[in-house]
Automatic annotation (TrEMBL):
Composed of two chains; the small (or glutamine) chain promotes the hydrolysis of glutamine to ammonia, which is used by the large (or ammonia) chain to synthesize carbamoyl phosphate. Tetramer of heterodimers (alpha,beta)4. Keywords: Amino-acid biosynthesis, Arginine biosynthesis, ATP-binding, Glutamine amidotransferase, Ligase, Nucleotide-binding, Pyrimidine biosynthesis. It is an enzyme of class 6 (ligase). This is Carbamoyl phosphate synthase small chain. InterPro entries: Anth_synth/Amidotransfase, CarbamoylP_synth_ssu, CarbamoylP_synth_ssu_N, CarbP_synth_ssu_N_sf, Class_I_gatase-like, CPSase_GATase1, GATASE. Pathway: Amino-acid biosynthesis; L-arginine biosynthesis; carbamoyl phosphate from bicarbonate: step 1/1; Pyrimidine metabolism; UMP biosynthesis via de novo pathway; (S)-dihydroorotate from bicarbonate: step 1/3. It comes from Aureimonas glaciei.
Length: 393
């Protein structure tokens, strides 16, 4: 593969486990780290992408060439505790990051990347890198930034080769809350489009595997008091909050590894009859809890322009995606219905139990970034909650 565009001495390198070396101009944090490289096709929302905790131990190469030109702000972060800087460990850009130009900007992307500890390279032929990933899958890699331009290439190659990769990794425990907390942040006005209830009418327990902030906002905006709980919480601990609904969040790593402790809890919670909704990692773990299987994808789905079909309505929605593992639909048991598929590769994107108020989707209905076509899934969750409440009343 060709190296980067830069004619200057490289100050940053991306070293793939297969020995490919890609040179660029370093920006953001100085140092080196390992991760899996994936490409993201979103045109906007780079801060939301890089702060999505589901990207832990991943390096994102953006196919959109101009990243950083609207600067950075303190609002467009998707992790709950920015000080802990959960999210992508590295970022790769085609063009040099220009001076910020946007009324919301409070600084240059470079400073923000430094603050978050994200190592980045610009001046990269991101088309070639994306083509490489499409052909060969998402590689393990080291990303290294040294303003002096001094690198021990053999050591970096060895480090990239030695990294285990994402398969078998439980990262949820690293990025999720360690304590139960009530999350009462309301939706942004521009993102609501929905009544923002002042008095909560429901209690939703959100099992946190690395949740995105906008998911919680879209639930508080529909009248929920959201109790965020650690990923290792037991079913009894969840039920002690008398939830009207249970939410399983998105998150990083391999669902099968996270599922070791989460799946038995989810199985017990299904039996309570409380409506349950899962997103992304939550969807994958629900599938595992129901007896299905997950597997690693070749290049994954990362972007804000993926077509997904909802079989329950026949409608196609354009969605936000970020996953590298997928549910194998053929492994779902007979009491589970496949509700959504990706129109890119027909992979599973949703399921529901035929006889229980339990459903989940692989894509990101909260967007952030991305289109809001799938916001209706939050309405479906609260409709299930209402109908159970009305039956009980
Ligand atoms: N966004 C997510 O929840 C990602 C789920 C899982 N870590 C995957 O890569 O498939």
């Amino acid at each position: 593969m060709t190296a980067g565009w830069t004619t200057r001495k490289p100050t940053a390198l991306l070293v793939l486990a297969d020995g490919t070396i890609i040179e660029g101009d370093g920006i953001g944090a100085v140092g080196e780290t390992t991760g899996e490289v994936c490409f993201n096709t979103a045109l906007t929302g780079y801060q939301e992408i890089l702060t999505d905790p589901s990207y832990a131990k991943q390096i994102v190469t953006f196919t959109f060439p101009h990243i950083g030109n609207v600067g950075a702000n303190d609002e467009d972060t998707e992790d709950l505790v920015p000080a802990n800087a959960h999210g992508a460990v590295g970022a790769i850009f085609r063009a040099e990051v220009s001076a910020p130009s946007n009324y919301r900007s409070s600084g240059h992307l470079d400073a923000w990347l430094k603050k978050r500890g994200i190592i980045a390279l610009s001046g990269i032929d991101t088309r070639a890198l994306t083509a490489h990933i499409r052909e060969n899958g998402m590689p393990n890699a080291v990303i290294a930034h040294n303003p002096d331009g001094v690198f021990d290439i053999e050591a970096l190659k060895a480090k990239a080769r030695a990294w285990s990769g994402l398969e078998g990794l439980d990262l949820a425990k690293d990025v999720a809350t360690h304590q139960s907390v009530v999350w009462d942040e309301k939706p942004w006005a521009w993102n609501a489009g929905y009544a923002t209830e002042s008095e909560p009418r429901y209690t939703v327990v959100a099992l946190d595997y690395g949740t995105k902030r906008n998911i919680l906002r879209l639930m508080t905006g529909r009248g929920a008091r959201v109790v965020l709980m650690p990923p290792t919480s037991t079913a009894d601990e969840v039920m002690a909050h008398h939830p009207d609904g249970i939410f399983l969040s998105n998150g990083p790593g391999d669902p099968a590894a996270t599922g070791v402790y989460a799946v038995p809890t989810i199985q017990k919670l299904i039996e309570t009859g409380v409506p349950m909704f899962g997103i992304c990692l939550g969807h994958q773990m629900l599938a595992l809890a129901l007896g299905g299987k997950t597997s690693k994808m070749h290049q994954g789905h990362h972007g804000a322009n993926h077509p997904v079909k909802d079989f329950t309505t026949g409608k196609v929605e354009i969605v936000s995606m970020n996953h590298g593992f997928a549910v194998e639909s053929g492994t779902l048991p007979a009491d589970v219905e496949e509700t959504h598929i990706s129109l890119f590769d027909q992979s599973n994107c949703g399921l529901k139990m035929k006889d229980a108020p339990v459903f989940s989707v692989q894509h990101h209905p909260e967007a952030s970034p991305g289109p809001q076509d799938s916001h209706y899934l939050f309405d479906r969750f609260f409709e299930l909650i209402d109908s159970r409440k009305n039956t009980a009343a």
